[in-house]
Design brief:
With about 180 residues, this protein is an all-alpha fold. The chain has helices spanning about 1-10, 15-25, 30-40, 50-60, 65-80, 85-100, 100-115, 120-135, 140-150, 160-170, 175-180. The N and C termini lie far apart (about 45 Å).
């Protein structure tokens, strides 16, 4: 049934997708809860409701659904639905990163590099950039390359920086092309 819901969503048959996701959400399916939250957030086939999206993401996050954790983290960072809380945002982002969500791994690395919601830690940032890069995240390749170029949190290594910038450039990332 989940695949049917995604098929309906991808074919822009949003009312059908909502009906299927709602049936699955009643069974506490984390992917359905998260997907339904996204549809409420974006107003796809239903009136947009950020508050409803927040509650659906929160339900899915309790079940360790990575995209729900990521979207919930963004809501805490934004502060539009709930009070701005960079520390809660980082905590949720890290949980999503641990579950293997590449964009969350990149955002976790960025937070660690900048000290947003956590103690600044370049070596941990390098770890999470590398995890995201393993999943093909071009910005992670670029940022990891910068850490190798500068020797922040890792041993300075121009050859590795070159490889990272090359991968980012191959993905048509302008920053990677510039750094290369």
């Amino acid at each position: 049934m989940l695949q049917s819901a995604f098929d309906a969503f991808n074919s822009e048959r949003y009312e059908e997708a909502i009906a299927l996701f709602e049936q699955l959400a009643l069974q506490n399916n984390p992917t359905a809860l998260s997907s339904l939250g996204y549809m409420h957030q974006k107003g796809l086939g239903i009136q947009s409701s950020i508050e409803r999206a927040f509650h659906l993401y929160a339900q899915a996050a309790e079940l360790d659904e990575p995209t729900a954790l990521y979207n919930l983290a963004l809501m805490y960072a934004d502060g539009a639905v709930v009070a701005h809380d960079q520390f809660k945002s980082y905590e949720l982002m890290l949980r999503s990163a641990i579950l293997g969500f590449a964009q969350a791994q990149f955002e976790t690395a960025l937070a660690l590099e900048r000290g947003l919601g956590c103690v600044q830690n370049f070596s941990e940032a390098a770890f999470w950039y590398e995890e995201a890069a393993k999943r093909g995240h071009s910005q992670a390749f670029n940022n990891l390359g910068v850490l190798y170029k500068e020797g922040h949190g890792v041993h300075q290594d121009y050859a590795r920086a070159f490889l990272c910038f090359s991968r980012a450039a191959e993905a048509n990332l302008p920053e990677g092309q510039y750094n290369l």
